[in-house]
Amino acid sequence: MIKIVKRDQPSRAIFFFTPVLAIFLTLVAGGLIFYILGFKPFEALKFFFIVPVADMYGLSELLLKATPLCLIAIGLSFCFKSNNWNIGAEGQLTFGAIVSGGVALLFYEQERFFILPIVILAGAIGGMIYASIPAILKTYFNTNEILVSLMLVYVSKLILDYLVVGPWSNPEGFNFPETRQFSDSARLPLLFEGLRIHAGIFLALAAVVISWFVFYKTYLGFQMKVSGFSLKTAKYAGYKGKKMIILVFLISGACAGLAGVGEITGPIGQLHREVSPDYGFTAIIVAFLGRLHPVGIIFASLVVAITYLGAETAQIFMQIPKYTGQVFQGMILFFLLASDYLLFFKFKLIGSKK
Amino acid sequence: MHKFLIRSFVSSLVLLFTLTVAAVAKDVKAAFVYIGPTGDHGWTYQHDVGRKAVEAAGFKTTYVEGVPESADAERVLRQLANSGHDIIFTTSFGYMNPTNKVAKEFPNVKFEHATGYKREHPNVATYAARFYEGRTILGTIAGTMTKSNVIGYVASFPIPEVIRGINSFTLAAQKVNPNIKTKIVWAFTWYDPGKEAEAAKALIDQGADVIAQHTDSTAIVQMAEKAGVYAFGQASDMDKFAPKAVLTSVENNWGPYYVDRVKAVANGTWNQKDTWHGIGDGMVVISGLDSQMPSDLQAKVKKLQADLASGKVHSFTGPIYDQKGNLMVAEGKTADDGMLAGMMTYVKGVEGDIPK
Questions:
Q1: How many beta carbons lie within 10 A of that of residue A208, not counting itself?
Q2: B348 within some domain
């Protein structure tokens, strides 16, 4: 007979094993869905997960897609670790893109070495300003940061809409909703000729290293961890909770803002209405799939990035609807949450008693 | 006898040639990039109907739906160009820069961009439809059918394409009913059923009893059906979504153009150009007219349709005045394509200002 027993302590091995299990279950369920839809499951999975990254170009595209996801998820892990539920990274990304795009447009047709650093800095500051709104409202007015940060996403998109339709629209662009193209000095340099992967990846890698250091080697990291486990304990220990809330939101906003900078000064090169295909929301899946661990987040961002590329390839070569990519993302999260059950409970084999 | 032999020889040569061309034609592969899902019953749906026409003509096609206008568009385009497609149709304005960028890298692949204006490389063509001709028909119907003399118009973005539609619609309505006013609500979206329905409701609350739309969902005609006012279908025949409200629809008919261009690639006659086709070329199609319209109006509409097709009537025939009363087009003149392409002022009779 099998009995379900509560664990005394969440298992650490299981903690890092369940994301792998979730991905495996997603592949099985995905294959099953393909089979039901009438596609050859193994061929479909090959086009989904192997063909898109089979060459240098594909790998570059994978890293290009994973960079903003990783960057935002690292930022979010600061918030999530310390019990702050920032759901508005998409808004912070958008606002960061607006501020840095505005600066880039100020330097239209100018080529100076200092333009790019200012543009990058502006994006980070933009993201921080936007993230500070839910943080300040939470600390001083006890508002719910989930609602505030989420609603601000829509506000940021409306601001962007207004700017690209109105005052910032390209004067030679027949009033279409887009700005002028940024000058080359405001663009992140490409790493390889002919590939789209750009210097923004170094921002993501730096964020990974810094976050690892902060999480595991600093007093702040320890405080975040304690607050994450129990806010009361943190208070009892005398941690300055308000300061920390604002700090983690600022870090998170800066990361999201930088992700926005990476998109507009990297592959896009201008501001228009669709700067991000909801990276800020997808990064929430990435953060949890990566277990809020910097290295885990690297792998998670690659896994989620490939679901985007795979969906395109599968539609081009096998006419599988592209929206299955979103189904895969949903399944990963679903299986991860479901298998978290194993964290707290275990199955125990008991001999039958007479 | 001699003649017969020569004739049969020539005809068999012709036959052989046709067969060879047909065989070559089968090898051309066309790809389509869509902004939305193929089931949106609007913009993307109609492009996909066009794609199916290309399939029916014997060519292989591929499509990718729901491609955002973000950095992803470029990757999809490059992958299509890289995987043996000879001609790629990019069917949303936001693909303009990626289309030109990828076209530069693949000079042997033809690119066709809908609704854009950039043709930076010899392998990029652009195409659009003269939807404003359809709106002349809608304006005529709206001006005749309205009782409140207030006509609502849900607009998407303040770009020349949309302004031109509003103007063409208003001018036609004024011609049959000088007392009408066109009220505009800007939805700032091409496809958002919630926002569109809200915009329609706002217009109905302001007394509009005919609603026109320049957004793509069926939400507006459904809202009109509920409120008991008239409306017009956009992009596809939307009659089945609101049988009482929809008087007619302006359909986007891309099929003939797509087949034409893919065949041109097959024959080696493809060339760069900017195509702007209307009712005459069959790119803009008026659906069946609703029986609620009086028969003399139906006859008038049929005639107007024929005259627009033949070029006897132009949607923008002077005298046309702007809102301030300045002359835009003199009496007896018609607006040229340059003026139409950059049209950014309302004509007299439209209420409100263009958002800046």
A1: 19
A2: no
C-beta of residue A182 within 8 angstroms of C-beta of residue A261: no
Query: Based on the domain organization, do B102 and B136 belong to the same domain?
Result: no
Q: What is d(CA B282, CA B308) in angstroms, rounded to the nearest whole number?
A: 11
- ipTM, interface predicted TM-score of the complex: 0.83
> Which chain B residues are closer than 8 Å to A266 by Cβ?
71
Of B68, B72, B344, the CB nearest to A175: B344
In chain B, how many domains are there?
Answer: 2
Does residue A262 belong to any structural domain of this protein?
yes
pLDDT tens-digit profile of A70-112? 999 999 999 999 999 999 999 999 999 999 999 999 999 888 8
Q: For A241-293, how does the pLDDT look when each residue is reduced to its tens digit (9 = 90+)?
A: 888 899 999 999 999 999 999 999 999 999 998 899 999 999 999 999 999 99
Kindly report the CATH number assigned to the domain that includes residue B223: 3.40.50.2300
Looking up residue A51, the CATH number of its domain turns out to be 1.10.3470
Please report the pLDDT score of residue B9 as a whole number: 53
Half-sphere exposure of B243 (CA within 13 A, CB side): 2
Domain contains B297 = no
Shortest alpha-carbon distance between residue B145 and chain A (Å): 33
Asked if the Cβ–Cβ distance from A319 to B158 is below 8 Å, we say no
Residues B138 and B164 reside in one and the same domain: yes
Determine contact: A317 vs chain B, CB below 8 A.
yes
Residues A7, A345: Cα–Cα separation, whole Å? 5
**C-alpha to C-alpha distance for A175 and A165, rounded to whole angstroms:** 7
Helix, strand, or coil (residue A136): helix
Distance from CA of A122 to the nearest CA of B (A): 21
DSSP assignment letter at A182 = P
**Residue B342 touches partner A, C-beta closer than 8 Å:** yes
Query: The domain containing residue A216 runs over which residues?
Result: 27-343
Residues of B in Cβ contact (< 8 Å) with A174? 117, 159-160, 341-342
Boundaries of domain holding B188: 131-252+316-341
The label of the residue with tokens 């820069």 reads B97
Mutate to test the interface with B, among A169, A278, A316, A329 (most CBs of B within 10 A): A316
- B37-80 per-position pLDDT tens digit: 888 788 999 999 999 999 999 999 999 999 999 889 999 999 99
User: Do residue B44 and residue B122 come from a single domain?
Assistant: yes
* Partners of residue B152 on adjacent β-strands: B183, B211
Interface membership of A142 toward B (CB under 8 Å):
no
Task: Decide if A160 touches B, using CB distance below 8 A.
Answer: no
Containing B217, the helix (H) or strand (E) segment is none
From B70, B157, B344, residue closest to A165, measured CB to CB: B157
pLDDT for residue A22 is more than 50:
yes
- The count of domains in chain A is 1
Identify whether B354 is part of a domain: no
Domain membership flag for residue A200 = yes
Read off the pTM.
Answer: 0.85
Same domain, B206 and B238: yes
Q: What are the CA-CA distances from residue A205 to residues A68, A176, A255, A351 (Å)?
A: 11, 36, 12, 51
Chain A interface, best mutation among B75, B115, B195, by max A CB count within 10 A: B75
Residue B277 has pLDDT above 90, yes or no: yes
Between A208 and B24, whose confidence is greater?
A208
Residue A88 inside a domain? The answer is yes
Q: Are residues B47 and B92 in the same domain?
A: yes
Residue B347 lies in a domain: no
Indicate whether A185 belongs to any domain. Answer: yes
In this structure, the answer to whether residues B192 and B103 fall within a common structural domain is: no
- pLDDT value at position A131? 97
